[in-house]
Amino acid sequence: xxxxxxxxxxxxxxxxNLAIAVSKFVAFAFSxxxxxxxxxxxxxxxxGNQALLLIGGKKAQREATPQHxxxxxxxRYIYAFxxxxxxxxxxxxxxxxxxxxxxxxxxELEHWYWPVGVLVxxxxxxxxxxxxxxxxxxxxxxxxxxxxxxxxxxxxxxPVVLLEDFGALIGLVLALGGVCMALLTGDGVWDGIGTxxxxxxxxxxxxxxxxxxxxxxLGESAGIEDVKKIEAAIVDGHTVTGIIHMRTxxxxxxxxxxxxKIAVQHDDTATEVATAINAxxxxxxxxxxxxxxxxxxxxxxxxxxxxxxxxxxxxxxxPATHPAEH
Length: 326
Hints:
This protein is mainly alpha-helical. The protein is 64% helix and 10% strand. It has ten helices and three strands; from the N terminus they run ααααααααββαβα. Helix 2 packs antiparallel against helix 6 and helix 6 runs antiparallel to helix 7 (189-218). The chain is elongated. The protein starts with 6 loop residues before the first helix and ends in a 20-residue tail after the last helix. The relative contact order is 0.12. The model is unreliable at 1-5 and 317-326 (pLDDT under 50).
């Protein structure tokens, strides 16, 4: 997903959530429904979350500086992680507290047509937002399932919007169920139960978002398909005869770091090796355009060292040398 990828889905979700939040608070004011209050806070939190995603996307476009030589691509991961925190605290915990209080102190709903009408409107608006997110995501997920797309996506915006919209739709159904049961039974406890269920749902979604974004913040490697493309692009069969080891790291959704120790012939000249490395870098960038930072280190492949197995401190090209300890 490009730096602007997902912006349409974010803006659609932001507009829908702002309109829905206002309508829910109006419904709460007239009906006293705790489900409406919880859903209003949820929509307000979602609106703030979409604003955070837009801010993160803007900040991530800043040029690299001497202090941050690899740029600011990970700003998008940081703001996505903030979204999970807001969703957990402002959305989930507030709804759990409000539901608990309503179950302890239930009261009859007034002007029931307000919450019912608002919920129907909200389901339609959220459905439009969810449809936009699905359409944008389908252009990127390919043959992957939805769970694979959310787990493997390197750009956080669309997975966040998808999960938020999905949670919002389920939450609206729960709220509508709680309100309807309260009306049918005359017992306001059902409204509190619906609110409690909304809170639990939001907390679960926030935990999933936090786990996935944490993985991106820690630094994920390139996808399997990109790794295969890079490996195929490095080896030319002449000067570069193989890859001793390789590491990839996403510096941001659209910026990949590639570091590899490559095997060359022992009798190659420095000019031949340098030319081969430059050619390999060009092939890598052509195969995987987001591979923008590339470091290739030539080495002579050692069969005896390779048999020792992988070691982060010593590679099959030869043992690592450590500075003398003082």
